[in-house]
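Ticket #4471: complex job returned nothing on first submit. Input attached below:
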Amino acid sequence: MNEQQSSGTSQGSIAPDPVVGRTAVDREVIDVKVDYLPAPAPFVRKYKDETTIETVRTDAMNFFGVKDYQDRNIHKFFLEFEGRVLENTSETLEQLLGPHRRSAHFNLIERVTQG
Amino acid sequence: MGVSYPAIGRWLFAEGVLQQTIEGIRAIGQSEKEAGAFWLGKREQTAHVSFVVLPHGIGVEESCGRWVVSAEVFGAITRWAKPRDLCLLGVAHSHLRGVPPVLSWTDRNLGVRVPGLIAAVIGNAGEDADYRRWGWYVFEGEEYRRFTREEITNRISIDSSGKFEVWMADSKGVHVWETR
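Support reply: We reran it on our side without changes. The output follows.
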């Protein structure tokens, strides 16, 4: 699969550190991958484990060119993890994954709630 | 930088994909309910459509004038499709007898909205077997645009010997298709 490494400096993603080989904050780093069914490539980025699901969700939506919106209905995108829709987007990656997991694979899905 | 959605100039359907789409939704259409199918394949200049997934069962609403696939089913199809390197290329659904094969407001706004995705509306509850009589749309800019007859001729092609696979999906996963 053709993976595209996304760029950007949203809150929680890993920024370069002046000292080679060290991250800005001494935290676990999580390799995150998000798939979206119509997209030809996944969103791939490294995050600190203190990053919230909301940050990952927002970055992935930007990457895939989609957004939450409301017309007659409410359209909202969610991350799905291991078959579970993540409703609590204030949860951190560490809280979701536990302290030692180093990677996570999500799917981006859209839920439409009738207005 | 965001993902790029490669432009699609032409969609090449394995003939069996269209046949199985019709067969899959016809039985439901006979009971006066709308139904539909997801079309998947490789996203390229010529997009080869070789997989059809028929959402049905838990997480799928099939009713008179309404066909809705839940987020959970969308997720199940994603989990199945991505390891196979498949993309969603289009969505087809039926309209009941007497309802024109055109996208309604609901169809336009409840559907997936990414560049180049096609939407097909099959009239007469799935009885219209000739794909040239279907309503064909492509998502461009901020909305779905209907194909002209010329575009249907030039941009939709059939591969009579193309290999294809048929699957069913509900919120629990994707399964081998069984005749309804």
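Residues 4-114 of chain A form a domain with the Ubiquitin-like (UB roll) fold (CATH 3.10.20.90). Closing as resolved unless it happens again.
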